[in-house]
Amino acid sequence: MRRPVRVRHGHVNILGRDISTPIIILASAEALVFGLALLAACFIQLPLAPALPAVLDVIWSLQMLAFVSLGMVGMLSMGLYRRGFRGGANAVVLRILGAALLSVTMMSMLFYVFPDLHFGRGIMAIAIGLAIPGILFTRFGIFRLLAHDAFKRRVLVLGAGDSAQLFNRLRRKSDQVGFVLVGFVPRPGECTRVSDDSTLRLDVPLPEFVRRHHVDDLVIAYDDPRGGFPAEELMHCKMQGLHVLDIADFFEREAGLLKLDILRPSSMIFGRGFRQSLYQQYAKRALDVITSLAMLACVWPFMLICALAIMIESKGRGSVIFCQVRTGQHGKPFTLFKFRSMIMDAEKDGVARWAQKSDPRVTRFGAFMRKTRLDELPQLINVLRGDMSFVGPRPERPQFVEQLGGKLPYYHHRHWVKPGLTGWAQIHYPYGASEKDAFEKLKYDLYYVKNQSMSLDLLTIVQTVEVVLWGRGSR
Hints:
disordered N terminus, 16 helices, alpha/beta, globular, three-stranded antiparallel sheet, four-stranded parallel sheet
């Protein structure tokens, strides 16, 4: 059953995903800019007499829907709506230009397949030309407006110990786009780990305090929830319309990850998520096959060029395709295919090693393939075979799985789903080449395992474009 859309405490819940209201406002305004740009282009390009009827036709046509939708897909692909985007003004301008170019490319392909949707090159050029400055003006103007606290949720944290100290990791302005921290309320006798100027002492009952200070979210951050838990007051606050949530749920919502150091097994069992229906499995498999076939139809010339370049660089010695055993769903091994980017016998001693930045084992053309992710294109065959999914945690070598599984909590849980060609961790964290990196990526992998859905898969696929084009996470 399709989940309804509803507004709740500064978030819009769409298909089971909480999207911050400021992001919704920004995206809606920019979608309106795309629509107005197309209408203005029609007035400019068409003769004056028939312009009005033609514009009215465009407003209610599939042409308008296609132009606005592909424009927004281009913006999303460039990471302009990505949570925690920290790029400056120059990065925003470059990504908007990239989004416009990508949108034009997608529209050209759409017009080729569906000629009836074509509204003329002149109109499209003028519309894009008007949309770019309009998007720039709107984005920088709305960013300044949405930075005001009036558009943010007010968050009060109950607890001031080690768990509450995790809020110190959300110091950047980009991490606090959707909320403002009212303060921390320490439990009597609790050892305070946060700054004194952020702690609060309640001189009135909790329900009265949150009403006076217009609190929207109550976050429970007690190190030990047993004893002194204000259940009656929290229920009173909840009945007043406040959102009461655990600190682990708060970080999951705001940062898009699971904080493993505060994650409890009981919350994994009794909380929402961590389930997959038969419908989801079939739908995901259909998405894998369709996406892989579509990509193969587009990238086979590049795969051929890569194969020839590898043969030329190695003077015909060695294999073009590199086969390696990786760990798949439920811990089952499978053979993964990649273009060979290292010298032959890179691990002739039989010892598995992490890939490092500026790895001396990598060939010159191999470095280029890794930078552009071209070396991973043969994995589309793995997806078609069913060894992998298009979206999922990256498959690791069995040696590393055994090593990390004994050190990292919940590591084996990432194998509940098929590994992926791209994934939630890949678009949010750089390429991992150490146990520390594996621990950080595990937070995002488990978020995906818990919240996997078609909408999350599609979002990940679209945002992978930014990773490839801007080289984020390449090694």
